[in-house]
# Entry
Amino acid sequence: MLESQTAISCIYEGKRVYFCVMPDRKLQLILTRYKQGKLTDDDLLRRLSAQMFESLGFATVDHHREVRQGFPEVILCEGKTATQVAEISRSIVHHGSVLLGTRASTAQFAAVRRRVRDARYNPVARTITANTHLVRMRGRGTILVVTAGTSDIPVAEEAVETAAVMGNSVDRLFDVGVAGIHRILMQSDKLRQASVIIVVAGMEGALASVVGGLVDIPVIAVPTSIGYGASFHGVSALLGMLNSCASGVTVVNIDNGFGAGYAAALMNRTPNPKNH
# Structure
């Protein structure tokens, strides 16, 4: 459910066209500060325009994404300098949005922490989060994250962090792969109680098909790069999952716990009553 938001409009070719600007709470805060004399006319104009995007020179932060898609821009920290990650994080948090950074190093987190005091780092998932007190629970049920082995946990934890920061109840079921298939079969009740299941597996990726054959809910399969030579760094698991004989199994990219967590959050989202 998207937050209530304010729009501006204009006339284009004889028709009134609306453009969403920002959630109402942010507009109310800006206008209150303006009425209190804490913002000048120029400050007000800058704040309103800044609600769309902010140019940092090396990055253009898309502040409008939260309005369009229901969640702020997420930082892929991999390939960025610590300073770049810290500046983008500061921009997102200063804007009043929830922060999520993925594939982050400890050095990048240290730089973020100097600018964002409540930033938190998950060393297993390699994620950075902040402003989590703003997270609103939006899921209609529990997202269950399942791994075939212990080596798959880092990718699974990235999915957990992503789904949780997007307002979902998340549960874990780790190390229940097909090498000891009784482990997953003994958890059938727990599987059926979930609303969406994320299955994280390397090697041949068979666990996704097993889980998919046991439940009547969406299953998102995440191939991992865990395995020996012929696993081709996750390609074997990817192909196995894409060729699953179980109906309803959707596959994301190799080691893409973030993509699985985000997709699961969208599937689990409570419908907006205004749209029904």
